[in-house]
Write a structure and sequence with these properties.
The chain has 181 residues and is mostly beta strands. The chain has a single domain (3-173), classed as Lipocalin (Beta Barrel), CATH 2.40.128. The protein is built from one helix and eleven strands, in the order E-E-E-E-E-E-H-E-E-E-E-E. It has one helix at 62-69, and strands at residues 3-6, 12-19, 23-29, 32-39, 42-53, 57-58, 81-93, 96-105, 108-123, 129-140, 159-173. It has an eight-stranded antiparallel beta barrel.
């Protein structure tokens, strides 16, 4: 079965959420790894796995990142990884798919459905086969134990419960070892 390895230099695992009800903050994780395994390069048969090192969170503001790493949110010392493992892929037409899977944050695993768009496969100038996969979806952070919920004076949350997942990935096909006779 063909296997594709994520190319972290050409990938981004990101998120966005509303801040104080008036703006959007975005962030990403700098350290992650992932694979896609398929039966005969058939996208609908793919198994997707992604592991993120939560301590690598980066929103562009160090104090906020440190707060997100702490017990109010990700508790990275106790729960260093965020994981996604697909359980099914359904074609949605036009190179799009619905990917269902299990998302684990803080040792809480819940099913999610993500929208996926497939790019490729293509041959790069170095003879490698590459595919691009963009995954998007929305989760409730509170369902995974990210429950800190300070409010502003007008009563709205400082950080919204709804978090948009924005994952843009590029995978390179792992070359099969030539058999030695």
């Amino acid at each position: 079965m063909p296997t594709y390895q994520i190319d972290p230099a050409h990938s981004r695992v990101g998120f966005a959420t509303r801040h104080m009800t008036v703006s959007v903050i975005r962030g990403h994780f700098r350290e992650f790894k992932g694979t896609v395994t398929t039966a005969d390069d058939d996208a609908a048969s793919a198994q997707v796995q992604l592991t993120v090192q939560v301590a690598s969170i980066d929103t562009g503001i160090e104090a906020r990142d440190n707060h997100l790493r702490g017990d109010d949110y990700f508790a990275v010392e106790k729960y260093p990884e965020l994981r996604f493992k697909s359980t099914g892929i359904t074609p949605a037409g036009g190179g799009r798919f619905r990917v269902t899977g299990d998302l684990t944050i803080r040792d809480t695993t819940k099913p999610v459905t993500l929208e996926a768009e497939l790019g490729g496969p293509i041959q790069d100038p170095f003879g490698n086969t590459r595919v691009g996969i963009t995954l998007t979806g929305t989760i409730s952070r509170k369902e995974w134990g990210l429950t800190a919920n300070p409010t502003i004076e007008s009563g709205g949350p400082v950080i919204a419960d709804e978090v948009k997942l924005e994952v843009e990935t590029e995978f390179t096909k792992v070359k099969e070892e030539a058999s030695v006779s």
